[in-house]
Design goal:
It contains five helices and five strands, in the order H-H-E-E-H-E-E-E-H-H. The chain is an alpha+beta fold. The chain has a domain of about 80 residues: Zincin-like. A three-stranded mixed sheet has the order 3-5-4. The longest helix is centred in the middle third of the chain and has 14 residues. The chain is elongated. The N and C termini lie far apart (about 100 Å).
Amino acid sequence: MALSKTTKRASRQPAPRDYKREAKQRDSKRAPSADSSSETTTPATSNDGSRTKIPELLAELEEAAKQLDVRLTYEAMSGELGSGGLCKVKGQWRVIIDKRSTPGDRLSILALALSRIPRDGLTLSAKAEKLLSEVRPRDVSLEDASLPSES
């Protein structure tokens, strides 16, 4: 008798889920088509029509940071700190970038950081130089600003 009760309970339970099969089906539905490109291979187009891939430009700027003795780290950042930036710690320049950021965001943060420090004697490609000059914040002096003067 006890055996028949066990079989009845077992027949009422739902079949175990096949998580691997379900994940495969989800991934196949989400997979990009062959003609679409992911962000890591998305080329950046310059004004002259030539194309540069983001990972290549990012790798060049990472190498430039090494040559300039700028410590570059990718760390998990949380809260409202943003996705990274430039700072100076114990006299050494440092760039910290959120490791979960996209390659495009990494490139933007690193380019902005490198544009703000002296790059004397560093040779970069024309595209990298152009990027650094475009993202560099302009210098502002108090004489130029239309702030009310203190009297």
